[in-house]
C-alpha cells in the first residue's frame, strides 16, 4: 500500500516553525481566500519562503537547495535554453549519471514537469528552491549578453563617430575589436544559444528593432539607436557577401560561423523598406535534420 503523503501543516508544525494557534489561523485564512497554505503562511509572516520550500521538499520527496550557497553552472544556457529558464522560472544544477538536475519552484505543477521532460529531452531530477531566489538569479544574472549589447551600443553612440566613418570601419575591420563587429557577433551568438530559428533586424522610424523567432513566436530582444543602422546593416551585408552599395533591390547571402564548436549556417536576406533595409537571418542548425523518435520526446 502506498504511503500517505503528509500534509504541509503537519511538517511545518513538527519542525517547530509555526505553533498550533497560528497554524489554525493560517489554515482558516487559506480556505477563505482559496490560496495555498504555504503562500498564506509567508503572507502572514509566520514562515519564510525557504522554510515553506524545505517543507514542500519533505512532502514531495525532493531535495531543497539554497541558491545563495549553490553555484549555477557557467554553461547554464547550454543545459537549459534561456527562453525556457525565463518563461518557466527554472534553473539547471548540472548533469550527473546522465540525469539533468533542474531547480523548480512548484512541485505540484505536474504539467510543467512533463513539459520540461519533453522540451529538454532528458531524464530529469528535480530540486526545490525559493521562488524569490530563482527570480533574482534569472533577472539579475541572466542578462549578461543584453548588458554586453547595450554597452557596445552605448560605446558606439558615445564615440560620436559619423555614420560614414562607421560604415568604412565595418567594411575594412576583420578582427573582433571593432564595436560594430562585436555588436553583430553578440546578436548572432545569443540567437543561436537561445535556440532561435530567425533573427529579424528591422529599421523603424526612430530605432532599429532586433527580434528573435523562438518556437514560432517573435520576441523583441533589443532596440538599437537609429544612428547605428547604416554600419549595422553594412556589417551584415559584408559578412553574407552582399553588395554593400545596393540598397534598392532585394539581396540574398550566406554566413557560416563557428558557435559552441558547431558550424552554423545563416541564410541572410535584405529587403528594401520605408525606413531602411530589413534584414532576416535564418539559422540552419546541422542537428535539425537529424530528428529521431527520441528528439521529439518518445
How would you sum up this structure, described in words?
This protein has 298 residues and is α+β, with helices and mostly antiparallel strands. It has twelve helices and ten strands. Strand 6 (207-214) and strand 7 form a beta hairpin.
Element layout with pairings:
Elements: H1 8-15, H2 20-33, H3 37-43, H4 49-60, E1 63-64, H5 76-79, H6 82-88, E2 91-96, E3 99-104, H7 110-120, E4 123-128, H8 131-141, H9 144-159, H10 163-172, H11 179-193, E5 198-203, E6 207-214, E7 217-225, H12 229-240, E8 251-259, E9 262-271, E10 278-284
Parallel strand pairs: 1-4, 3-4
Antiparallel strand pairs: 2-3, 5-6, 5-10, 6-7, 8-9, 9-10
Helix pairs in contact: 2-3, 9-11, 10-12, 11-12
Keywords:
four-stranded mixed β-sheet; single chain; six-stranded antiparallel β-sheet; 298 residues
| Helix count from the secondary structure assignment | 12
Instruction: Find the count of extended strands (DSSP E, 2+ residues).
Output: 10
Q: Secondary-structure element sequence?
A: HHHHEHHEEHEHHHHEEEHEEE
What percent strand? 15-25%
Sheet of most strands: 6 strands, antiparallel
Average pLDDT metric: 81
Q: Pairing-aware structural class of the strands and helices?
A: alpha+beta
Radius of gyration: 25 Å
Proportion in helices: 40-55%
Unreliable sequence segments: 160-167, 170-176
- Please give the alpha-carbon distance between the first and last residues: 30 Å
Q: What is the strand arrangement across the widest sheet?
A: 7-6-5-10-9-8
Shape: elongated
